[in-house]
Amino acid sequence: MLRLGTRVRFAGQEALVVARTLAGEPTYDIRLADGRLIKYAAESDLEPIEGDGSEPPPASARPSRSGGSNQGGMQ
């Protein structure tokens, strides 16, 4: 199941998942890069784009939680 906000490829075009229908087989409303809205696209017609940002980054890529931008230790 795709998450809202996931970037996908649909018929060779990039799109963004903007809604999901859960009745019966899951379908998705997607917004194409040119602004058109496609309603009730089957999940089998959508190809998630790798590295689309819908998954949290690995712990090593996350910024520290110190809140400061000074990494040298001097303040």
Describe this structure in words.
The protein has strands at residues 7-10, 13-21, 27-32, 37-42, 46-48. The protein is mostly beta strands. It has a domain at 7-49: SH3 type barrels (Roll), CATH 2.30.30. The protein has a five-stranded antiparallel beta sheet with strand order 4-3-2-1-5, with no helix packed on it. The protein is globular, with a radius of gyration of 18 Å. This is DUF2158 domain-containing protein. Residues 44-53 have a biased composition (Acidic residues).
Could you please say which CATH topology of the domain at 7-49 applies here?
SH3 type barrels
The CATH architecture of the domain at 7-49 is Roll
Tell me roughly what share of residues is in helical segments: under 10%
Integer average pLDDT: 80
Q: Summarize the helix and strand pattern as letters.
A: EEEEE
For the termini, the CA-CA separation is: 47 Å
SS field, number of helical segments: 0
State the shape: globular
Question: What topology, given as strand order, has the largest sheet?
Answer: 4-3-2-1-5
The Cα radius of gyration reads 18 Å
Quote the beta fraction. 35-45%
Structural class: mainly beta
Number of β-strand runs: 5
What's the CATH class of the domain at 7-49, please? Mainly Beta
Question: Low-confidence runs (pLDDT<50, min 5 residues)?
Answer: 57-62
The major pleated sheet works out as:
5 strands, antiparallel
